[in-house]
Amino acid sequence: MVSQRHDVTLEWPDADRETRTIAVDEDETVLEAAERSGIALPFGCRTGACGTCTGRLLEADGAEPTAADDERTVDVDGAFSYRRSPRALKDRHRTAGYVLLCIASPRTDCRLAVGANVHTELVENPWK
Amino acid sequence: MSDVNEPSDVEPDHEHDHHHEGPGYATPQAAIEEGEREELAYVMSLYVGTDVDAPDFVSVVDLDPDSDTYCEIVDRIELPNRGDELHHFGWNACSSSCHMEGLERRHLIVPGQRSSRIHVIDAKDRRNPELETVIEPEEVFEYDLSAPHTVHCIPDGEILISMLGDADGELPGGFLELNDDFEIEGRWEPPGEIEMNYDYWYQPRQNVMVSSEWAAPKTYYPGFDLEDVEAGNYGQRLHFWDWEAGTVEQTIDLGEEGLIPLEVRFLHTPESTHGFVGAALSSNIFHFWRDGESGEYRAEKVIDFESREHDDWDMPVPALPTDILISMDDRYLFGSNWLHGEVWMYDISDPSNPRRADSLSVGGTFGEVQEVQNRELSAGPQMIQLSLDGERLYWTTSLFSSWDEQFYPEEGERGSVMLKADVDPRKGTMELDEDFLVDWGECPEGPARAHEIRWPDGDCTSDVWQ
């Protein structure tokens, strides 16, 4: 049986890069599909521990997050299935729509913020 | 392939009627006297965590002032994969193997901190090293280990690597042993001896090893989060091991003043049981030693760096001493305060009472020097390396890609630099060499970060004597 595919649109915030849409099989990760399409996304451990590949869900199946920064209507856990536990993300990150692209496979069409800048949103300088 | 060219017919002599047959120098003093001035440096260079579509690489830096390419990256060994985060590395052999006839200090073992991939680079041609073997992450995960950190050769030609996590990036960490053909021999220690791991150093003549603690990979990989400090997810312990048995004999909890004990160094003299560890988050340096009467190790805070107020920061800025090293003659302890922007040297002739000798204020949040040769510095001094004769101190500026992004976001845009100070060990002074600058901002694929530094023929942070 051929597995289902979903259109995943990749956008690089604050970077001068063109938005790209790739078809991702339900049994492959977003990172694998990007590599197959010749698109470089940041990554590190590929086991869900390091967060280098973090993306942020912008829209899933037509539903956009609400205007409030921390309150999103998009259900990130419904939009992606994880191969293993996303250890690099804390609960607050998952609630805010962050996704580990090295272990996440889509379950719906969606739009993602990607690139190194997204990973840096996970933690801030605690003294500043 | 092995670096042991012929079977040795010289029995290792642990009683030290020392036959010097193999790599390295017979004593630390011999390293000072016989070692030549460093003309090349190998430096870990990385793109992981950026959008630059290129693998990390090992830089070969020209340090010969008489060369036309002085201060330039003259060769780059590109690795086959992206995403490694090159961090720390080491030689297949050091002075601890100097009884091993036929063994050469020839292969660099270069782990990927994030990928858990281990590269073996043949550096027989010192200016043009070549990648020889790659141990893939899956082979490492089979031993339920990940996140390779410190590499030391161990005295019989084998290689030991501290591993900070299990195969999932959680605790416990442990140690991975490679044989002299660069194949995984297995776990060096019985699993479960420690929870957290980071750096280690061994003193074989005293049958002791000491290891320190960072955190689980899943904790420190994404970046530094105060929530993790409050939850007790960062380390504060030192572990003292029976070196031959590979078992922990004693654990010292350094307490809140010893949070995140990173680089740990014994004195070079093989008889010594004294050493130092930098507690990065608490900004303290601890001295440790074996108490002669009880035979147990003790640890005491001997240097305390105060946080400093800064107009642009909400809270006092901690110093964050992220690297320390001991000069080959065991007289000085050098270190770097990455956040404050300071390189310092302490006289440790009396290791219980370090005396501040000198410091340089450069880069970082408070550095008096914020540019060299009109090149703006993006971060504070980080990994340091000292010449064998103790007269030249070099440093790079990147700590760890995700932590750099938090504290010095410009580092990723501008790249790292390598700087140098001239040291007068007799007077105990340092002076910034403003003619010296190596710039990773000008790499062909884009600005890169630079981390640990090694010399081709041994250095103050990798050589151990048996």
Polypeptide structure, described:
- The complex is a heterodimer of chains A (about 130) and B (about 475).
- Chain A is built from four helices and seven strands, in the order ββαβαβαβββα.
- In chain A, β1 (about 5-10) and β2 (about 20-25) form a beta hairpin.
- Chain A has a five-stranded mixed sheet with strand order 2-1-7-3-5. Chain A has a two-stranded antiparallel sheet with strand order 4-6.
- Chain A starts with a strand and ends in an 8-residue tail after the last helix.
- Chain A is α+β, with helices and mostly antiparallel strands and about 130 residues long.
- With about 475 residues, chain B is mostly beta strands.
- Chain B has one domain: Methylamine Dehydrogenase, Chain H, CATH 2.130.10.10.
- Chain B has helices at about 30-35, 135-140, 215-220, 225-230, 400-405, 410-415, and strands at about 40-45, 55-60, 75-80, 90, 105-110, 120, 130-135, 145-155, 160-165, 175-180, 185, 200-205, 210, 235-240, 245-255, 260-265, 275-280, 285-290, 295-305, 320-325, 330-335, 340-345, 355-360, 370, 375, 385, 390-395, 415-425, 430, 440, 450-455.
- At the A-B interface, α4 of A face α5 of B.
